[in-house]
Specification:
By secondary structure, the chain is α+β, with helices and mostly antiparallel strands. The protein has helices at residues 3-19, 60-75, and strands at residues 22-30, 33-40, 52-57. The chain has one domain.
């Protein structure tokens, strides 16, 4: 897979979680990439689903993408 295609796949995963109401809670980085932890803020007691997700982001451009999202959220 090309680097650009890998970026698109990882970006789509990030965007999908954000569209479902998840927010970036924490980021842990190591030599494998960035482990981005997402948390669902609005949790209804009636829903039965996981409120935390972790996504491994390895592509440099995708890492820049979620970093820009964090910065933008801090500005708002």
């Amino acid at each position: 897979m090309s680097s650009y295609n890998q970026y698109l796949v990882e970006k789509e995963k990030i965007d999908a979680l954000l569209q479902r109401g998840y927010k970036i809670k924490n980021v842990r980085e190591n030599l494998s990439g960035s482990f981005v932890e997402f948390e669902l803020k609005d949790i209804s007691e009636n829903r039965k689903f996981e409120n935390k997700k972790t996504l491994l982001v390895t592509n440099a451009d995708a890492r820049k993408y979620f970093s820009s999202l964090i910065i933008q959220e801090k500005k708002d």
